[in-house]
Input
Amino acid sequence: MSTHNVRAGLDKQANQVQQMFDNLAPKYDLLNTLMTGGIVNYWRKITTESIAPKPGERILDLAAGTGTSSVPLAKAGAKVTACDMSHGMLAEGRKRYPELDFVYGNAMDLPFEDNTFDAVTISYGLRNISDTEKALSELYRVTKPGGRIVVAEFSTPTFAPIKVAYQQFLPRVIPALGYLVSPNPSAYAYLAESIAAWPGQEELGRKFVNVDWKKVEYRNLTGGIVAVHRAWK
Output
């Protein structure tokens, strides 16, 4: 099935999203760095600090892709499970980081027991899941009582000049760059649309509350282009 059919306004069919990321896997991290001008590394650093991994903790990194987001958690001494539903991403990750534990899994039906992890996290993957609250509920289920969740996701800019520039950038520049540098340029049209359609910071926070996460908070990065939400079970 062509990834041209993967559009943000439609329900996100799991097999379509999986195929899209399978095709992008070998160059995915490089393309993200290019598309964001390298600022993704700063966002990742803040996300890791928000997770605050500790030695011996069990942490689930959902939608981990090639494992780039999992590496700093493992370096902090945590026992990380890098979970993704893209076989291409998992294969690429196992080649790059053989020391990590990569597991295939669907976010809406996670292959883990209740109360397994001290912390769960997902970066830039929640909006690719067709039922946000179901995914947040599954993450709640596999988290130990007292454990935490950290979600990094593109969001709604709060600073007017950034908001205007961002609204111009998303539909025009990202797809254009995709055609220049990506083996699967239609994926970047989907990326732009999925970001534009994603709920803002407060609305997403309410989805956490709806499935019983407590003490929900968020931090805006780069004027709200990205928001890092954190909550506890």
Confidence is low (pLDDT under 50) at residues 1-12. The radius of gyration is 17 Å. The chain has one domain: 3-232. Strands lie at 58-62, 79-84, 101-104, 117-123, 143-154, 214-221, 226-232.
